[in-house]
Amino acid sequence: MKSVSKIQGFPVFVASAVTIMVTPSLMDPINVSKMFLLAIGAGLTAGIFWKDFDNLRSQASRPLFLISCWFVIALVLASIFSPQPLFKTIIGVWGRNNGSLTYFSLLVLFLAIASQKSSTPAIHAIKALSILGFACAAYGVVQSLGLDPISWNKPGNEIILTLGNSNFAGAFIALTAIATLGYLAKFAKSNLIRTLLIISYLSQMYIILKTDALQGLVVSLLGSGLFLGFLLSYAKAEFAKKLGFVWWPLFTLTSMTSLVSVFGIGPLASTFSPYLGSLRDRYYHWVAAINMMRDHLFFGVGIDSFGDFYRLNRVQAAIDARGTAATGTNNAHNTFLQIGATGGLLLLSAYVGLTLYIAYRAVRALRIQEDKLLVGAVFSIWIAFQAQSFVSIDQIGLVVWGWILGGCLVSLSFYTPEVSANQKKAEKNRLGQESSRVRLTRINLIVMIFGLIPSTLLTQVVINELVLRNRIIEFVSSTTQEEASLRSQAVVNIARNSKQPELRLQAVKYLLMLKQNDAALSLVLLNNEEFPNSYESWDATAQIYESLGDKDQAMHPRQRSVELDPLNLEIKKLLETSQANN
After folding, report:
1. Among candidates 33, 22, 37, which has minimal Cα distance to 143?
2. What residue segments make up the domains of the chain, in order of their start?
3. Deepest of 164, 194, 247, 463, by most Cβ within 10 A of its Cβ?
4. Distance CA 229, CA 245 (A)
């Protein structure tokens, strides 16, 4: 039975490994390695839990099976009919990697847990998040003191943990803090453990404050408040239950007051006023996403391709709010709108269906489960994650927990502890039979091999990025122009192998730094040919020609950049100047 329990916790282990995975030796030390490990973990999970997926075809699980099939079909169709190259939709934009492979891998982990009909995955998830919270709080202190052994490309002593920026770090620590409360209430058996958990929770709240991330603070308070409500409502003591009746309306009122204050309304408006600018920017990202959905209703603009179409779909008010047209974004900063804009209505309907199904099963789990605290803890974290997803990005190390916890809620909703001795005996026999999963069958191995094929394809992506970084380091260390010219060709050769336009443009930046204009031009011209919707590539081409004084050659790429960013008056003036000179 212990071996079965460990196997049931395998998707949770994968999620934990994905969250902490970083590779400082890559150009993108955060997301590429997380996507790579997620794909490997999903492949292994598919092989291990192949038999359990049959449970999804039962009458009770039929809605989940149908919604999941619809999600996969919509994902495939959105990738095939995308205006972007297929490889880019599979891998996603460089620096995010939220392509179709990422979402498919997340679905596999979710279904592996949802098919278990057990409380074990939920227990593993609470414990894993509590441990990660303790470890991340300690690492956050190290980063805040400027003692981080990893040299991140970040300002000052900003706390980013292993997630890329302080917003993601704050949001993740918020989830682990809620899990820590759940562990404290549910599993802590000794005063020593309770004391350590309290210290851990306070440390995590301190790190959230140090990140200065509003979403982290809001998510932590929301989830903690929800769990406290569940704790009081399902307590055995009558006094605690009476407090629960008082707590829920008070919590609801406070939450609503905080929500409207974020928009500059109410008594707490001054508290949230420093964050209004960020929220305003997100609002205009959402408007652009809605415009994309209007123009690409069914299949979207291409999975994770928001950035290439943002400038075409933004409104003038977005430019006025920022005071410049030069800045852009590659994400809608709202998971639902991001999926709708890049994957279309078909994929969005499947994702909304999955979310609503999980919410329904969570409520059912609260009704039928004897262990209300376990369900309440998982439900609180999942709701907190959903709140975060309305204003943020599907960062891989963070979003994986939303899918894991969703699977736990579905699993709990189908699990009812055995009561009679005969039922317990039957359950023991069943677990004994299921332990054969540890000894993988032929079909398990076949599924696992096929499941690992995507990760083997990603190997070349990781290797190329590693080699490119090394070549760039050699290039920028050149001491003479002749040496720089020779090494620039090595940079170009490796960058050409990459199918990610954003990564190529990173190489272009370094080539221009050392005046290797011809080498830089060869890369941006290749980008223009293969990725004609990349504003950054056309703009870089025009800038290179303009810096060389070649107005004739700059004309076409500048015209193209204006077409892709029609509201940008600055580049329109550059185009008008070139036309006037001709």
Report:
1. 22
2. 15-274+372-413, 458-581
3. 164
4. 9
